[in-house]
Design a protein that fits this description.
4 copies of one chain form a homotetramer. Chain A has 187 residues and is an all-alpha fold. Chain A folds into 2 domains: 1-54, Arc Repressor Mutant, subunit A; 58-187, Tetracycline Repressor, domain 2 (Orthogonal Bundle), CATH 1.10.357. Helix content of chain A is 78%, strand content 0%. The first copy, chain A, has 8 helices and no strands. Chain A has helices at 2-30, 37-44, 48-54, 58-80, 87-103, 107-118, 122-149, 158-178. Chains in contact: A-B, C-D. The interface between A and B is medium-sized, with 32 and 33 residues. Chain A binds a DNA duplex (21 and 21 nucleotides) through residues 4-5, 7-9, 11-12, 15, 36-38, 46-53, 57-58.
Chain lengths: 187, 187, 187, 187
Amino acid sequence: MSAEKNKQQLKKELSYQNIVETATKLFAQNGYDKTSVDDIMKESGYSKATFYLHFESKDEFFLHLMDYRLKQFEEEFFKLFKPENNLKQTILNGLRLFFELTERDLWAPIFFEFWSHAMRNDMIKERMQDHYSKWIRLASSVFEQARSTENLPNTINTEAVASLIIALCDGFNLQNQINANLKIDVG
Amino acid sequence: MSAEKNKQQLKKELSYQNIVETATKLFAQNGYDKTSVDDIMKESGYSKATFYLHFESKDEFFLHLMDYRLKQFEEEFFKLFKPENNLKQTILNGLRLFFELTERDLWAPIFFEFWSHAMRNDMIKERMQDHYSKWIRLASSVFEQARSTENLPNTINTEAVASLIIALCDGFNLQNQINANLKIDVG
Amino acid sequence: MSAEKNKQQLKKELSYQNIVETATKLFAQNGYDKTSVDDIMKESGYSKATFYLHFESKDEFFLHLMDYRLKQFEEEFFKLFKPENNLKQTILNGLRLFFELTERDLWAPIFFEFWSHAMRNDMIKERMQDHYSKWIRLASSVFEQARSTENLPNTINTEAVASLIIALCDGFNLQNQINANLKIDVG
Amino acid sequence: MSAEKNKQQLKKELSYQNIVETATKLFAQNGYDKTSVDDIMKESGYSKATFYLHFESKDEFFLHLMDYRLKQFEEEFFKLFKPENNLKQTILNGLRLFFELTERDLWAPIFFEFWSHAMRNDMIKERMQDHYSKWIRLASSVFEQARSTENLPNTINTEAVASLIIALCDGFNLQNQINANLKIDVG
DNA sequence: TATGAATGAGGCTTCATTCAT
DNA sequence: GATGAATGAAGCCTCATTCAT
């Protein structure tokens, strides 16, 4: 009985995973609007109706996907990120890790797809604000901790600096999209 | 006869202008895919068919619009940009001007709309590459000129620095879209 | 074993009852076409597939439901209907009872739903013809019996009169659906 | 120029008429829910999109159709209805005319389709209330005028009587739908 | 030049029904 | 007996585009 249930459950989870992965890929490649539910389901090998077994609508799905991907990215980062005693080293670690993760799969295009929607949809905007708050808080805390071990001037607004570093990363990724030759040499 | 022709031409240019302005606004507000030709033409006050008098297709129109806007932005910038003897001052001037122009109208969202398409369409990607080349060349040249007057180390890759400064600006604008409180204090 | 079977049978009858009651309510509220099998089963608390354990299809189910409801209505009526020696009193009794039953539950809307389908489906039309035949026969027989006790002219077509009285009731119920203030003062 | 405009206008009116006529027929035959926009447009010989040139949605169209048909019915009735000095004659005239119009086209089924929706949609309910108010007012006024010429008891509630006569007509039409042999011999 | 009418193709969503468990 | 997963078919609606005037 429990095994049976497990089997059905597994089957559903499988289709779920499949849909999410496929959609991520297609959204990254063609954008949200140019990717139809039909496209997603044909590529996943399930019927269109199966999509609506899992999600209420295409829009609701996008929100879901965002949460899923953003959280996944954060988790992977936090799992691997190792702060060091040396501030510079910590920053370099962080940047290196960030760009590594970014290059995996099609993270950058899907991420800018999130951005694009955040500008026009308040619910999505909130999600992005939360996401950025987390990064800024992290970077900020690194600087704060470094205040005691390194000679950081007290006047430095750590949040502003964190924000700018993140801006730099995003802007770099943006340019990277149209100029793949661009290479950053972290360290 | 020539006067007549002139009149017609003027009229056509007027409707052209009108369409482009309206479309820019709507694309900025709702994005390319969520803005229909119908929307644009209803808002401009012309009939839908008039659109196809001016442009071959919606896609071709987007290319037009991009060229038009990008060129306009560049022209406004170059018209007002005043390099100074002092490098720092020149940079600050440039940044201040850039952010001023950026805040006008709905430049940032329409600009990221261009980005979004550049990632997926080679023709548009080329336009964006050209655009960025120009900015990088400009910034780069500023640094080169400064080499003689300021003590810039010869090892500095001026193109890389230019690229990073631009990345910073774009990244900042990106964050600004979801966090309007963000304020940069140039200078 | 027999007890077990009985238990199962009872269970099945229970779910059957439940489905029919729920469906009646939903059909009355929203109409047949606007009520999905899903709606019915969610509201009854059973799974969608259970529906097909009991019925072959939604259409076949509607037939079931009609028979069930029509018979139930007739039974309730005939159980309570008491013909009297006095014709007028008998008629008033009948009308009063009819309107009482009609006001219960959501009889009127579900009944007109039957009508709606009877106009377009021959099988359902037959059911309705049978139903009406019964009523007309009943009313007719009342008049016939009254011929001896009251001074009914022999020329009266009792079936036609019966038919018209029933028409009056239906028409009244119809108006009642959109004008709840309408009140008949039987007697 | 005016002629040209007229031609276009005529063309549009033609397609409009065509759609409305076809839809009336199909709604009468198969009911609103079982008639798709596709069905209507295939039968009218226009493309599906043309439907949305004229109407905002299928629902809005139904409202429109109702208004159109109800008004048409009323107009035809009032055009032909001739009140007489003799009350009985006037009533017979009215009934005869009513049943004549009712038998034309597929008035009865489409009319009960309106009813069916009126029970579940407030906007449609209002339309039907208005419609009935008109008939009751008409019949009522006939009785009022008859008070002076005929010996109508002052205690008669003319509105109630009007309402019941109309109920009778509707109920008769209802039965007529499933029993075409039913014939009323007015007069 | 300008436009209103018309459309084919496609997008999102729902639903009655089947089937493996 | 009961159910969750899955689906083919169909429904409503939108949109970029064409064409006759």
